[in-house]
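In this supplementary section we document a worked example of the pipeline. Step one takes a protein sequence of length 801 as its only input; no multiple sequence alignment statistics are reported here. Step two produces a three-dimensional model, which step three serialises into structure tokens for compact storage. The input and output of this example are shown verbatim.
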Amino acid sequence: MTTDNPDQLDPRLYSLLSGLRRRIRAYVWLEGLALGLIWLGLTFWAGLALDYLPVLAGASEMPREARAVVLAVVAAGLALILYRWVFRRAFVPLANRSMAVLLERQFGVFRDGLVTSVELTEQPDHADAFDPAMLTRTSREALAEVDRVRLGAVFNYQPLIRSLLGAGILTITILLFYAFNPQALAVWVNRIYLLQDEAWPRSALIEVVGVELLGPEDAPQAVGDVPLIPFRDGRLKVAKGSNLRLKVRAALAAKVVPELCTIHYRTGGGERGRVTMNRMRRSRDEYQQYAFSGKPLQSILASVQFDVVGYDYRVRDHLIEVVDSPAIVGVELDCVFPPYMVDEQLAAWTPRRIEWTNSTQLPHGTEVTLRVRANKPLKRVGLYNVDTQETQPLDDIDATDPRQFVVPVGRLNSNLNLDVTLFDLDGVVTERPYRIFVTVVPDESPRVDVRLRGIGTAVTPDVMIPAKGKIVDDYGVDKSWFDAIITRATVAENQQREQPVEQVFSLGKGGEMDAVLDFRQLRSQTNSVQVVPKDKLSLTIRSADKYNLTDDGPNVGSGDRYQLDVVSPEALLTLLEAREIGLRRRLEQIVQEMTQARDFLLRVRPQAATPDREPGDANPAGSEPGEKPVDEQKAAERAQSLRLLRVQQALQQTRKSAQELLGVAAGFREIREELINNRVDTEDRKMRLKELIADPLQTTGETMFPELERREEVLERLLLDDLNAKRYDLDSGQQETAAAISQANDILAELEGLLQQMLDLETFNELLDIVRQLIGEQERVLGETQKTHNQMQRNLLRDLE
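The serialised model returned by step three reads:
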């Protein structure tokens, strides 16, 4: 049915246009929503790949900031799609005329009738120019074609189908992902859309256990087993220069146990790299262990930040911070010395505090307390005694001054060998223990450097034995004494006992000793000590110090042991006279040697001045007897060399004879002292030995011989200079030669005079022997006479009875 009112559009035409309008809006919504789903699906999988695929490679998930950026991109893309394909199209007004034009273009059967009907209806004023009948006819023709119109032919459904298909496929994949792994889908939704930090589940599970210090081989023995140093909140402090071993473990209960673990590191110096950890044997606590100790953990000098990756598990942002190692900067020793060493008056060895060094030495028995200063505040200290192999922890660090600690050592009976390991407040431990070594000096026995003066191997019963020298001790001498043992001559007396003799004497300043052991004085004391001829006397000088730390008593030092034979005065005189004869013979030999030295000097003069020429002297022709004539210059050179050789021979003999002469003088002085010490001396004998023999010999050896030696040296230098300068004048050095010969003659004259004195003394000694023999014979006769007289008296008394 049609309407004849041109102001209203026919309902069938209106329905046709409205249906087209609804289909267009539905198409727009379907296509826009499908594209939005496609965008969400693609970004879902793309974001999942960006977040999860690095995890499979051992990396960490995207941080929240990155996921926020991805979410913003997703939201922006979705908003753009909805705006462009939905909101900008779906809410655009679709006029009837536009719908009519669309149908006219798609279906030509309307022949502009549909558009004309719509325009005349919506704009009636345009119809005034046209015939109403014609307009009615046009509308009827349009209505006639309405039933033949199919609105679906207006649309191109391929883009919509593609969009819906794509959206459906992506939706199905997401649904399948949910069906097979809802936990992963939930994790990803929470991470990407809710921006939660929920981590992806891993197939492997690893953790950083800590680090071990790889110090020198003796470090573990010095502080015991060094514990594993764990990380705290991913942070760890170690000493600069330390050698570290990083320990990582993987749980065997996880789905996958990594074949290896990788360290990705960044040093404080900007160096980056990665290293592979060594897989160790499986431990008992169901963990697989991994370790690494190479660069950059070897001799570490800068802080290292690192991640550890094991299969799909990554431990991030661990930091090894390098700090200064705790070190000892000073050690002081509080010393209390043993009482036997202390001298309050001299303030010697009183308690004191000393600075420790590597060469510190302390006396045995010193009470020691260590005061140690460190460069950093300390938490605890490990003490290890190398000698006793004992470990002692020290935890009570003074809170007011944590850089210092005190170690009471006690009495030093042996060397102190202490290894100190420091643990600071940062948890840093010294890689190499600090060794404190103190040498203990044991108390030595007194040093007895004493010699007997004027005592030979034989002594008389009235001998006084003088000793002189020095006795010193490191901390003072308490007592010094003569220690003598008398061994009796007869076997019966010896079987009873050997009589010891002790006499204490005092020392002078600086330990000087000048003491005498007088046996005549000992015999006069209450406890009489008497020696007789044929006894043996063993004498030692001993000294004791003040050491009192042990039950063994003080240390005793001893000098040389002297074995002396006790003889009668006559026997001693006989021995001394024999020594005098020996000294005289030595002097005779010196005279002979000096005569030979004088003859060497005589042969230095030219042949004309030497009538008694000997073989080897230069002849006028410059050659030796029996030799063929030689060149004149060579002969002169040879003669000059011979002169120099004679001078050198004389000089050598002079030096030798001077030393021997002084020895002879000392021998006579010793004889004189033995006479005095053994109390067998006479004034005449003492005067002769000293003033007539010993003193002149000493004077000759100290004055005349050095002058002769000086003159010979002058002559030697003169001849040597001539020889070096190739001056072969045999007349050179005549004055020096004459002076040397003159001095040699004076010495010989003096020695011959002294030798004559000794011969006179020997004659005097022979007379004394004769007198001693007469006295001895007289005493023997008197003894026999007295014996005969006593026997006669006994016989007379017996006859009277």
